[in-house]
Design goal:
- The chain is an alpha/beta fold.
- α4 packs antiparallel against α10 (about 190-205) and α19 packs across α20 (about 380-395).
Length: about 625
């Protein structure tokens, strides 16, 4: 028998954090890398950031900060630290709001023992891909037990398995056999009970589901199960398959994990004993979770798991904090009307709007993310909400441009090394300056889609920095030696759609655009581009016939690379860009988690044309700033 483990410390600010070492097999190391974007450097950085966040969060009083516990949430959110922190808050809040369901998870409790020996859930083992396989025989739940008693058993099961790192990484494949289920097993669950339980399965507990196969659901349970699944997140619902007969379910058992009951050789009694040993091994660890504490008044005012909404849209994360730069605080006050009271009110209003918007299924609601939209709309919360919805629509309507933006793919490094786009740092007004040189781009290798994907990676990483949200961006387009084919690549529709997205959907403040050495053959395309922009943005465009004229008429010389007569080394600037994209890689990839139901979007309801080109008509000009 494995030695029994003791509970972990819940000191949120320990003097020394535990040192983590990855000890699992190569199968899980590779799975963690491919599916979760996990490696030693990413893991160490994410753990450090999450621990800092917990230490600074005034609403979390006591919390485990050992690596194994935090990795539950980081792996669940593919190492996006903001989303992992949101998941942790949601988990802690659910446990505190419903202690009779999710606390005092003691396997020695007589009721827990009875449920276990009835065998409603059995741990069959690990399949060939490294995923846990679990069998639920739903009819083995006792209709006389209360929903909270059944929930406590399942919570005890989830907490125990989440202590196993193979489960954190590999996730689970669940098979559900509804055979012999009676009406009283289903009918004891109220709608509120179903919402709370699905909140645990689908949102609060960091569970990674592979596939969920079910069979033989009786008619008496159909309406209850349909209601239950209506509260699941879309990703979970996509993984569920339902079959009429148990015979159809049997083919989803791997031979070595197929119970004798279904024609295989696995002894369910032996499998049950393995699960009992896990309960014994992690008994004190699971009970120790009850020592974590949060400000329940604060969190309960922001979450209502029994209310009408039960999706990831209701995440509340960081509170507003003014930026540390005095220059940018002044810009925020003078240009954006930003102050503590105004920002906090607008964040609250925007979160409430997201929670009530039937079109938005999942969305980040941490302050950093929402402030992007509030700042670009000068804290008009309705304007910010409109821009956010446009942003979500754009990301979904143009997946080839905006989804699966992985900054670590090899072609991104090639584009960085080409010096196509270089960040030059901040000017005297605190704005970030970028130099774009199309003559450096290999247009035979990189088509329009890849160019837009690269620009979007830059925009998303730029927008994650609050100083950039406040001060905005300055673009220098040096068109010296640009080939005609660089213009010919872009269709008029691509230009229109991309400009619409950048100026009306993406929260970016374009303060100045300097165009240098635009050739005559590019003038027509340039005019078409500007016709797609707002009058305010057009007024911020300045053209120069030569680099010398540009240098003379601006105060940006010191930021330019040495080949322009400036002071900066291009190699240093390229390295800074690579580091920035690496830093925000997981956060950018995690944006794909956000989902919108286009059928319910107010932006799309009145569109007669649902094609991508129809996007043009839906984006009327906003007051870009």
């Amino acid at each position: 028998m494995a030695p029994l483990l003791t509970s972990y410390s819940v000191d949120k600010c320990p003097k020394v954090y535990d040192e983590y070492k990855f000890t699992l097999s190569e199968l899980y190391r590779e799975m963690a890398k491919q599916e979760l974007r996990e490696d030693d450097a990413v893991r160490e950085k994410a753990l450090s950031e999450m621990r800092d966040w917990i230490a600074e969060n005034p609403y979390i009083f006591k919390c485990r900060t050992d690596a194994k516990f935090l990795l539950r949430f980081l792996r669940y959110r593919q190492f996006s630290v903001p989303m992992a922190c949101e998941a942790l808050e949601r988990y802690l809040t659910l446990r505190e709001l419903y202690p009779s369901w999710f606390k005092n998870l003691d396997y020695t409790d007589p009721i827990m023992k009875d449920i276990f020996h009835n065998g409603p859930f059995i741990f069959l083992g690990w399949d060939s891909t490294g995923r846990l396989v679990g069998l639920s025989r739903f009819g083995r739940f006792d209709g006389r037990n209360s929903p909270s008693q059944d929930a406590r058993f399942m919570a005890m099961l989830m907490e125990t398995l989440l202590e196993v790192e193979e489960f954190q990484i590999g996730g689970c494949h669940i098979l559900i056999d509804f055979q012999d289920s009676t009406a009283n097993i289903f009918e004891k669950w109220s709608i509120s009970d179903l919402k709370i339980m699905m909140e645990a399965y689908s949102h609060a507990y960091p569970l990674r589901y592979s596939d969920i196969h079910s069979a033989a659901l009786p008619k008496c349970g159909t309406s209850i199960v349909d209601t239950f699944l209506s509260f699941a997140n879309p990703k979970m619902r996509e993984k569920i398959s339902c079959f009429s007969t148990v015979g159809e379910l049997e083919k989803y058992f791997e031979p070595s994990l197929k119970p004798a009951l279904y024609g295989g050789s696995l002894d369910l009694d032996n499998a049950n004993r393995s699960l009992w040993k896990l309960f014994e091994e992690y008994h004190e660890v699971v009970l120790g979770l009850d020592r974590m504490e949060i400000d329940l008044d604060y969190y309960s005012s922001r979450w209502n798991f029994e209310g009408n909404m039960s999706t990831d849209r209701k995440l509340e994360c960081y509170q507003y904090q003014p930026v540390s730069s005095s220059l940018h605080r002044q810009i925020a006050r003078d240009e954006l009307r930003e102050d503590q009271a105004n920002a906090e009110q607008a964040l609250q209003q925007m979160r409430e709007w997201i929670a009530k918007n039937p079109a938005i299924k999942t969305c980040r609601t941490d302050a950093n993310f929402l402030l992007r939209f509030l700042r670009v709309r000068k804290f008009s919360h309705m304007g910010a909400c409109e821009t956010l919805e446009r942003y979500l629509v754009s990301r979904q309507r143009f997946p080839a441009w905006y989804s699966k933006l992985d900054t670590a793919v090899p072609w991104v490094k090639v584009m960085i090394d080409s010096e196509f786009v270089i960040p030059l740092g901040r000017d005297d007004s605190g704005r970030t300056v970028y130099l774009i040189r199309y003559a450096n781009l290999d247009i035979d290798r990189f088509d329009v889609t890849e160019q837009i994907r690269f620009f979007t990676m830059l925009i998303e990483s730029f927008s994650a920095d609050e100083l950039n949200q406040i001060a905005g961006i300055v673009c220098i387009l040096d068109d010296t030696n640009i080939p005609m084919r660089a213009f010919a690549q872009w269709s008029l529709t691509d230009i229109k759609n991309f400009i619409d997205c950048v100026t009306n959907a993406f929260p970016i403040r374009v303060k100045e655009v300097h165009v240098v050495n635009l050739p005559l053959f590019g003038a027509t395309v340039g005019e078409w581009i500007m016709s797609c922009c707002s009058e305010k943005l057009r007024s911020r465009l300045k053209c120069y016939r030569s680099v010398e004229e540009f240098v003379t008429k601006t105060n940006l010389l010191s930021l330019l690379p040495k080949e322009y007569g400036g002071k900066q080394k291009t190699e240093d600037l390229k390295r800074q860009l690579k580091d920035t994209l690496d830093n925000y890689r997981n956060d950018i990839l995690a944006l794909d988690e956000m989902k919108l139901d286009e059928k319910q979007s107010t932006l799309l309801k009145h569109q007669s044309n649902s094609t991508e080109a129809g996007m043009i008509g839906s984006f009327r000009k906003l007051d870009v700033d």
